[in-house]
């Protein structure tokens, strides 16, 4: 008897790309809230958005909670919130965003590390001789 294995879909197949602009209302941070960041042990993700101001030229507008992967081809996962906003400010509009919806449990992408998991001391290696 042979069993057929179900092929699981990879999350990269759910990546959404869009090109957005927001007119003359300042920078991107005034129209779309970017939350999370490496300083919190999180991926950067999108918060509240002013949907009446955002214009999507290509693709589909992202949703609240979508994880931000790239801005104009520059990867932002692993950056602090401040660095992510600096990358966004560097480009003129429209900007291309690559986002992905969090997994079945949004807490999976957005969870923070427990305080005990973060250590500022170098690891100690013990050798058994």
**Residue-averaged pLDDT, rounded?**
79
Distance between the termini: 50 Å
Helix content: 10-25%
Rg of Cα set: 19 Å
Tally of separate helices: 3
The residue ranges in which pLDDT falls below 50 over 5 or more consecutive positions are 104-110
Overall spatial form: globular
Q: In percent terms, what proportion of residues is strand?
A: 25-35%
Question: What order do the helices and strands follow?
Answer: EHEEEEEHEH
Structural classification: alpha+beta
Number of strands: 7
Strand order of the largest sheet: 4-1-7-5-6
Main sheet makeup: 5 strands, antiparallel
Organism: Champsocephalus gunnari (Mackerel icefish)
InterPro entries: PDZ, PDZ_sf
Protein name: PDZ domain-containing protein
GO biological process, one term: signal transduction
Which structural traits does this protein have?
129 residues; 7 strands; 26% strand; PDZ domain-containing protein; PDZ_sf
Describe the structure.
Mean pLDDT is 79; it is low at 104-110. The strands form two sheets. The protein has a five-stranded antiparallel sheet with strand order 4-1-7-5-6, with no helix packed on it. Strands 2-3 form a two-stranded antiparallel sheet. A hairpin with a 2-residue loop joins strand 5 and strand 6. It is 15% helix and 26% strand. It is globular and about 60 Å long. It is α+β, with helices and mostly antiparallel strands and 129 residues long. It comes from Champsocephalus gunnari (Mackerel icefish). InterPro entries: PDZ (IPR001478), PDZ_sf (IPR036034). One of its GO terms (biological process) is signal transduction. Residues 65-103 form the PDZ domain.
